[in-house]
Design a protein that fits this description.
The chain has about 250 residues and is α+β, with helices and mostly antiparallel strands. The protein has helices at about 35-45, 120-125, 145-155, 165-170, 175-185, 195-210, 220, 230-245, and strands at about 5-10, 20-25, 70, 75, 95-100, 110, 115. The strands form two sheets. It has a five-stranded mixed beta sheet. One of its GO terms (biological process) is respiratory electron transport chain.
Length: about 250
């Protein structure tokens, strides 16, 4: 199948960028977006050009590295699916497809389709951890956790940190990401001793790096992990709880 690509090319963070048109004549419906870019780069290199810079790692929908904007939608046309699982079978022969980096003030472009998502790392540093005593590991049955509680924690821990929620949000908010983090930790007993401290740290980082949430809900539609909108509410819930318990680690 023949696919015409309009790809954002930007040599560096300081240089201006623009769309460049390429044609891939030998694409197949089974190709994923990263595989299509691999094929495009083969063509560009064979012609003596500079390949398109983009990120990918596992290509199994786990790492969250591959995120790009496809036809103005983070990741691509299929809802709740990462870029590496978006296949050309969802397009038609002869289609024109526009590829560009995630667009958000919090994600400055590094080069071409690569963005700097370290703002998410700073949110994690704000409270995405638990402090534990080192030494001999406790017995597995020391802390009893119900199946339902464990499953809830795992559902929110499924966030892969791709940043699509931020790119989809008109305000560039990261409440789905940060709410998933806070809910994951507050659900389990290991995260409760520092619950208030964690909420303050995470919210401080979110307010410094990202825009405010207006509950549009676009974030939920593009999230590859299917994090529910309830995560957004958790940000304000945890912060209000921390305000009432100021001075306490719980």
């Amino acid at each position: 199948m023949r696919i015409t690509l309009e790809v954002w090319r930007q040599p560096s963070a300081q240089a201006p960028g623009d769309f460049v048109t390429y044609v891939v004549d030998d694409a197949t419906p089974e190709m994923s977006m990263p595989e299509l870019l691999d094929r495009l780069n083969d063509q560009i290199v064979e012609a003596g050009g500079e390949p398109v810079a983009f990120e990918s790692d596992c290509r199994e929908g786990i790492c969250g590295c591959c995120g790009i904007t496809v036809d103005d939608r983070p990741h691509g046309p299929v809802a709740n699916t990462p870029t590496c699982q978006q296949h050309l079978r969802n397009f038609s022969d002869g289609d024109v497809v526009r590829l560009e980096p995630f667009r958000s003030a919090a994600f400055p472009v590094v080069k071409d389709l690569v963005v700097d998502r370290s703002a998410l790392d700073r949110v994690v540093r704000g409270g995405g951890f638990v402090s534990v005593d080192t030494g001999t590991a406790p017995d597995a049955e020391d802390r009893q956790i119900t199946f339902r509680r464990a499953e809830k924690a795992l559902d929110f821990a499924a966030c892969i940190g791709c940043g699509a929620c931020v790119a989809a949000c008109p305000n560039g908010a990261a409440h789905l990401f940060s709410g998933a983090l806070l809910t994951h930790f507050s659900t389990l007993p290991q995260g409760r001793p520092e619950r208030s401290k964690r909420a303050r740290g995470v919210v401080k980082a979110v307010e410094a790096e990202f825009g405010p949430c207006s509950t549009y809900g676009e974030c939920v539609e593009v999230c590859p992990a299917g994090i529910p909108l309830a995560a957004v509410a958790a940000v304000n819930k945890e912060m209000m709880r921390a305000a009432w318990r100021r001075g306490s680690d719980d």
